[in-house]
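can u pls check wat happens w/ EPZ
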Amino acid sequence: MEYFEIHGGVPLEGEIKVFAAKNSVLPMMAAAILAQSGTTRINNVPDIADVRTMSEVLRRLGAEIEFDRQNNVLWINTENIRSYEAPYDLVSRMRASFLVMGPLLARFGTARVSQPGGCAIGARPVDQHIKGFARLGAKVTEEGGYTVARAKKLIGNTVVFDRPTHTGTENIMMSAVLAEGRTEIINAAQDPEIVDLAKMLNKMGAKIRGAGTSIITIDGVDTLRAVEHTPIGDRLEAGTYLFGAIATGGRVKVKNVSPASLRTVLCKMMDMGAEVTTGRNYVAVQMRGRPRAVDIITDPFPGFPTDLQPMIMAALTIAEGTSVIWERIFENRFIHVMELQRLGANITISGDRATVVGVENLDGATVMASDIRAGAGLVIAGLAARGKTVVKRVYHIDRGYQRLEERLRLLGASIERYDEN
Ligand code: EPZ
């Protein structure tokens, strides 16, 4: 297995351009299923494991996929789809594969997708997705670890989520676009990636209004066509570099990201004492000295994103003062805490709250990544720590970041990838 070796204490300095948002690209790949003809083109796509997994899911359905690695362009043709099943071995590798359920149901009236199961950060049920499909008239059953949905024709209806769900909103949106009549999604997730997906679906011929608010209205149409789309920049990749600058007392400018997609995060960075400057599609952060402690509550967008919780925690371990982080989205998203403690962080957990007492310095150690964002948080901590840090199981990080070590070296970091054997 591969690991990163980091020599910390070097401030991150420089400019970097982020790729398209992973959490835009994955639903857009599923949305390509909705195009009855033509080839979908998605630009600036990162070369990451999750994109390769979703490509494999679509190939198993019968789609043709090409990825131009030089130019990060993805081509998808779904004219010859002849299977409607997303198998266990792929869905268990990436739960976002469940996003093919809505498009398969909408276009073919049938879908059989392995239940995603939990992951390191929580149980992550899909009950809200299933309730939504049923509200649109689908018959949904569980058969041998698979969720099977059937519908001669989906009929528009009102779908109310008990709580905002990011991919649940996307799955229902992608099934309602070909349903008969009007669908209203109440208590929809408002993430920028959902607005981005709605833009692409409308380009394909859909009639969606209200994406980005808690009520989304979709008027069903008969067919959708393949289009070209350039997704928004990845606010989570951007946040990773920005918190890296804060944790190392550096100065970083991230391009191709909208400040509006990070507004809550940028406010917290300023509370930590960072100088933040923004433009139409860039954010720059400069940190002089130690950050100040701040309290964090993770919440659905526009609240503080749970996906940046491990990164801000890494920066807060060396802050002046005590911070309380309340993780309200996932029930088990503190696995990185034990690893940060190995670096000398002073953190105590009680239930869904972590109390971080800032220390002067972290000291390098060997730590282990448990999921994409925990891994990225540990890399940030290693960049800030004195001496050598080894981050093991970087395959978790490779799911969401294209060669993170090469990108961080562009910003002056001392980080190398090695293979254990
Ligand atoms: C999306 O996951 C993202 N993944 C996650 O990013 C992100 O952490 C999460 O949203 C929260 O922002 C993609 O977009 C591919 P949810 P998703 O449904 O849609 C509960 C990353 O690092 N829930 O918004 O699965 C759920 O358990 C990944 O890129 C139900 O109870 O998250 C959680 O507590 C990690 N029933 C809360 O809602 C459901 O049917 C929010 O989950 C669905 C969700």
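The radius of gyration is 21 Å.
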